[in-house]
Design brief:
alpha/beta; BirA Bifunctional Protein, domain 2
Length: 258
């Protein structure tokens, strides 16, 4: 059985570092210096927009400023998301010619990667489904959104999983209150959302959810996930990216916008 690395590595109070770690793992996989990797992580409070999005068209910046919520840009595509400690992020980093996904188109790859999450949710008695192009739904409500970055033969796939997040605040923050004149690039598609705790009707710990996802990934991918830590090189790259990219206003708010 193939063995993959499991990273339960997060910096909840430093969303900049969390995004930097994502890119550092991606870059090291491009050099084939780390194995296929699954990561779990959370941000305490942050808004994360897609690479090609116009932040003013997606986010209620006035509300974020008043609440001290950071707004950051990731290097993958997709739409804007709100993170708090009730939201679990998962990441899968894998070479694009791996036998599990070789020959799949982009939508097919999204469907495949989300199978592990859907399998894991069965442990809680939940029947979730993949909703193209990139969401997981329970009873017509979105519980997970996903995004990817592809470069030099490697895919980084990551997604959110709403466990017990503040949905009221999520809705307010992701309402940019536009006047109709704001130009957009990639626009988030708003859908009704739900939490796992609301769907199960019981309390869930993050460790329970992580364990269910771990088992789901292992079953669907037919691999063994072995818990490890970042390599020294990954830590160094992440520190540099955090300082020189994800902490910079030019990247987070103005990069690639009109």
């Amino acid at each position: 059985m193939e063995r993959w690395r499991l990273l339960d590595v997060e910096a909840p109070s430093q969303p900049e570092m969390n995004l930097a770690i994502e890119e550092a793992v991606f870059l090291k996989k491009i050099k084939n210096e780390v194995p296929p990797t699954v990561r779990f992580w959370r941000n305490r409070k942050a808004v994360v927009i897609g690479y090609s999005q116009n932040v003013e068209a997606e986010v209620n910046l006035a509300l974020c400023r008043s609440m001290g919520i950071k707004v950051l840009r990731r290097f993958s595509g997709g739409g804007a998301v709100y993170h708090d400690l009730g939201n679990l992020n998962y990441t899968i980093v894998l070479q694009s010619d791996h036998h599990l996904i070789k020959g799949l188109d982009i939508i097919e790859s999204y469907e495949f990667f989300t199978r592990g999450v859907i399998m894991g949710l069965k442990d809680f008695g939940l029947e979730a489904i993949f909703n193209p192009p990139s969401d997981i739904m329970i009873h017509d409500r979105k519980v997970s959104g996903n995004a990817q970055s592809r470069k030099r033969g490697v895919i980084l796939h990551h997604g959110t999983l709403l466990v017990k997040t503040n949905l009221s605040l999520l809705t307010r923050i992701l309402d940019a209150q536009q006047d109709g004149t704001m130009p957009k690039k990639v626009t988030s598609h708003k859908k009704p959302v739900t939490n796992l705790v609301d769907e199960t009707g019981r309390s869930l710990t993050m460790n329970e959810v992580k364990e269910s996802l771990r088992k789901g990934f292992e079953r669907v991918f037919s691999v063994k996930l072995l818990k490890e830590n970042l390599t020294l090189d990954e830590k160094k790259i992440a520190e540099t990216l955090c300082r020189e990219k994800y902490s910079r206003r030019e990247w987070n708010l103005f990069f690639n916008t009109f």
